[in-house]
Design brief:
Distance between the termini: 9 Å
CATH topology of the largest domain: Rossmann fold
Shape: globular
Strand order of the largest sheet: 7-6-5-8-9
CATH class of the largest domain: Alpha Beta
Largest sheet: 5 strands, parallel
Bound molecules: phosphoric acid mono(formamide)ester
Structural class: alpha/beta
Number of strands: 9
Amino acid sequence: MQKSLVSITDYSKDEILRLLQHAEKFEQNPNQPLLEGKVVATLFFEPSTRTRLSFETAVNRLGGRIIGFSDASTSSSSKGETLKDTIKMVSNYADLIVMRHPLEGAARYASEVASVPVINAGDGANQHPTQTLLDLYSIQKTQGHLDHLNIFMVGDLKYGRTVHSLLMAMGHFNPRFHFISPDELKMPNEYKQFCDDRGIAYTEYNELNDNINTADILYMTRVQRERFTDLMEYEKVKNVYSLKNKMLDNTRPNLRVLHPLPRVTEIDEDVDTNEKAYYFQQALNGVFVRQAVITYVLGLIS
Ligand code: CP
């Protein structure tokens, strides 16, 4: 069976847990020739370091081949070719398409016109489901489980697609959410409604201070400059939070600081050596999780 991954809600709780188990096996044994003879296209209409390179590492470790572009200005979309035509063409060349696009809904549209599975590598401020799976993997690995955790999400909760996907996935595991953001970047109502509908508790704050002392996971995010239509608004909030090592002194021993990266100023470099900093390992986990997702959508594992 072949199945696109566009939104984290495309997968059931059971599927998510199975994928995390597969990721663990790939971490133990990353080099497996499961993609021999397969071609994977990575189409990145927006910049990326981790997502594209970890997908490509995953394909290489699985013995597959890669085509694609990391800069849409080198593709014929710059001559006016539609997304539909681009996807139909690439479907002729590749067995799987991994796509990042600035428009919300672009990945869903691509999955509808493609004749091969599509994995959403981020569509605007909407969803980033493989980031969510690697976040879940990182949380499970560091906490030993996913249930009943105190999850603090900090920063740009309005435009940050990673917090939107993560909130929906954590909905399976009875979390308590704490949203820390300036008023301009609050968690959108649709996601708070998602929590309300499922009886998931959440609290909203403006300040990043000792309110983090009850956190199990502190999920920091960058203010998403590229999503602002008015850069004056961005200037007002761009440095709103900066986590410093000292601020972790009285936090729980099991606390781990996560960040999808790239970071700008929201985590001071003095945090990097703290044993509670987990963001670089988190990014490494992306390779194993993406190996699991690629082989799953191609029907090579179940
Ligand atoms: N986490 C993430 O999506 O990073 P990149 O933008 O570097 O891919």
